[in-house]
Automatic annotation (TrEMBL):
Keywords: ATP-binding, DNA damage, DNA recombination, DNA repair, DNA-binding, Helicase, Hydrolase, Nucleotide-binding, Nucleus
Protein name: Ku domain-containing protein
Span of domain Ku70/Ku80 N-terminal alpha/beta: 2-64
Domain of life: Eukaryota
Gene3D superfamilies: 2.40.290.10, von Willebrand factor, type A domain
UniProt-listed Pfam families: Ku (PF02735), Ku_N (PF03731)
Ku domain ranges (all copies): 73-194
Lineage start: Eukaryota, Viridiplantae, Streptophyta, Embryophyta, Tracheophyta
Length: 217
C-alpha cells in the first residue's frame, strides 16, 4: 500500500460485551507495535465520533436563509443576509437516480394529443374559470402577477426592539448581517447607517466586530 501511495485508516467498533482486538490481524496490517495499539483505539473512537458529528452538521440546513436587497437611494443598494436563530428541521427531498448511470433524473413534461398521439407544443396561454367566465393569461402575464416587485426593498430606517410586537413575527425569527459577496462593501455602508442613526438618537459610537442581533426594521 505504501508503494501505491495508499493509507489505511481503521475505525474499530467494539461490541457491548467484547472489545475490538487489534492484535489479531489489523495491528500488523497498519504497522502498529507495542503501546501504539493501546493508544490507537481511543484516538480512532474520537475520530469516529467526530466523523459522525461532521456528517450530522452537513445534513443540517445552513444558517443562512436568504439574501435581501435594500435600496438606500436610487443609485445605492446594499445586500444583507438573513440567518436563522432557531428553525425546525424537515427531511430532505427525495432525489431519483438512474439505475444505470447513477445520475439524478431530470423531470420533463410533454403535451400529447388525445386523438392522434402527436407531440404538442406547450400552450402559450393559461386560463382560469372565474365567476363563470374564462379568464386568459399569457405566460408573461402570469410571471408578472407572481412577481411581488421588480425593484429592491427600500430601507426607510431602523426601529428599536420595543416597537416590535408579537404579532409582527410571521415566521421563525431571523437576524440580518451585511453581505460582502458583491463588489460593494455592504458591511461598511450598513455600519455607517446604523452608527449615524445611533449618533443622532443616542449619541453613541458603535464598533461592529461580527454578526450580532440587529434591531427590527
Amino acid at each position: 500500500a505504501q508503494d501505491l501511495g495508499l493509507s489505511i485508516e481503521l475505525l474499530p467498533l467494539s461490541r457491548p460485551d467484547e472489545d475490538f482486538n487489534m492484535s489479531l490481524f489489523y495491528a500488523d496490517l497498519i504497522g502498529l507495535e507495542g503501546d501504539e495499539v493501546v493508544q490507537y483505539v481511543p484516538s480512532a473512537g474520537e475520530k469516529l465520533e467526530d466523523m459522525t458529528d461532521q456528517l450530522r452538521k452537513r445534513m443540517m440546513k445552513k444558517r443562512k436563509v436568504k439574501t435581501l436587497s435594500f435600496a438606500i437611494t436610487n443609485d445605492v443598494c446594499i445586500e444583507v443576509n438573513t440567518y436563522a436563530l432557531i428553525r425546525p428541521t424537515a427531511p430532505g427531498t427525495i432525489t431519483w437516480l438512474d439505475s444505470i448511470s447513477n445520475l439524478p433524473l431530470k423531470t420533463e413534461r410533454s403535451f400529447i394529443c388525445n386523438d392522434t398521439g402527436a407531440l404538442l407544443q406547450a400552450p402559450q396561454e393559461r386560463f382560469q374559470l372565474y365567476n363563470d367566465k374564462v379568464v386568459k393569461f399569457s405566460v408573461r402575464e402570469l410571471s408578472d402577477v407572481k412577481r411581488v416587485s421588480s425593484h429592491h426593498l427600500r430601507l426607510l430606517g431602523f426601529k428599536p426592539l420595543d416597537c416590535l410586537k408579537d404579532y409582527h413575527n410571521l415566521s421563525p425569527s431571523t437576524f440580518i448581517y451585511p453581505s460582502d459577496e458583491s463588489k460593494y462593501s455592504e458591511a461598511l455602508v450598513f455600519s455607517l447607517l446604523y452608527i449615524a442613526r445611533c449618533c443622532v438618537l443616542d449619541g453613541l459610537h458603535l464598533h461592529f466586530t461580527g454578526p450580532q442581533l440587529a434591531h427590527g426594521l
